[in-house]
Amino acid sequence: EVVSERPPELLLVPEDEPPELPPVLLLPPGVRNGYALLPPILKVLSDQRPHSWEGEAPRLQPDSRALRYMKRLYKMSATKEGIPKANKNHLYNTVWLLTPYAECKHHPKDQIKEDLRSVDLLFNLDRVTALEHLLKSVLLYSFDRSVFSSSAITCTCHLAVKENDPSGQVCPNVPQSITFNLHFELRRHKWVEIDVTSFLQPLIASNKRSIHMAVNFTCLKDDQHHNSKQGNSFNTALVPPSLLLYLNDTSEQAYRRWNSLRHRRKNPMWSRWRNNPLADSMKEMGTENMQNKRASRHRR
Amino acid sequence: DEDVKENQSAPTYNLSEYFKQFLYPQNECELHNFRLSFSQLKWDKWIIAPHRYNPQYCKGDCPRVVGHRYGSPVHTMVQNIIYEKLDSSVPRPSCIPAEYSPLSVLTIEPDGSIVYKEYEDMIATKCTCR
Question: Is A84 within 8 Å of chain B by CB?
């Protein structure tokens, strides 16, 4: 029974809507649109026919390296029981790893075929909702250990973000672009993250649904010449990057991490713990616990 | 018992019955484990982590005099009195979760993208009567 000032409205579901919507009367007014936003796990929980997911179109399988990266992120962010870790540097409660849905490779005439130096990537942001606010965005490159034996590498990256605005604006904004060099030892690293937050923030804030990036990423081992064959096979092995979006979801279903962090900060016990996280405060807290237990038992 | 049988007329107090009400109640409202794996639900195709999920649940009787032990508001006691003395169609207070903890889930979307999300209130951690 819906208790609200306005009389409940009947939600008429047009015939061509997907059948998995719950019966019309179950949705209170104003929620119907929100239904499409429900995170996937809640869609399934709220679906009247739990097995309807099996009949769904086959899912595209993500790149195994991307999957491995996200599993590692999961381990860093949650305990074995799956409970989010309370880490004050970890302010996001949602991370999307998007793979480009379109790639346009450019082959400059004087370059050898199959060279990934210049590629246009298109990322689809349809799944990101307006309640998911961007905190940080990263282009994620993975290096295959078998090809990139341990050595020092210098990469040059030219990145341009273009507005993919179908509205046919007469004077589209000038694309933002940047060129920079990376120098690192591959021995320890397998991933390279390129922070593109400042590029994407205005686009995502203005609810752009598609991100168009032109990336020119070339790498050379320090002991190789520019045009040597080996240098080019080096670049050939580069896989186009994924796009990582760290977001703070403010919807009802999402964990309000910011609130819990603020709550902890107010709790003096927590501050004492934080300042002196060594054993004595543990012991102190332990003794306090014992005293508390004894007192309550005594009261009971 | 023998005393009771022999002289029905005189009221007697049975100590064992009396003390029984102070024993720790066996099926009182409390938190119960319920471990499940998403492969049981055939969801492991798209839920990558966690492998196991223990949402826990509350079950049991609410004691007649619901005191502060369950953090129950005074209304709970009033509802008990209504049930006992005025209208037994009004249900007794129920044993329900009072606090939850969040859960992190890693899923694969139909378009191949991967999402890590933390959901609120996915694991019951404390029970109450109300």
Answer: yes
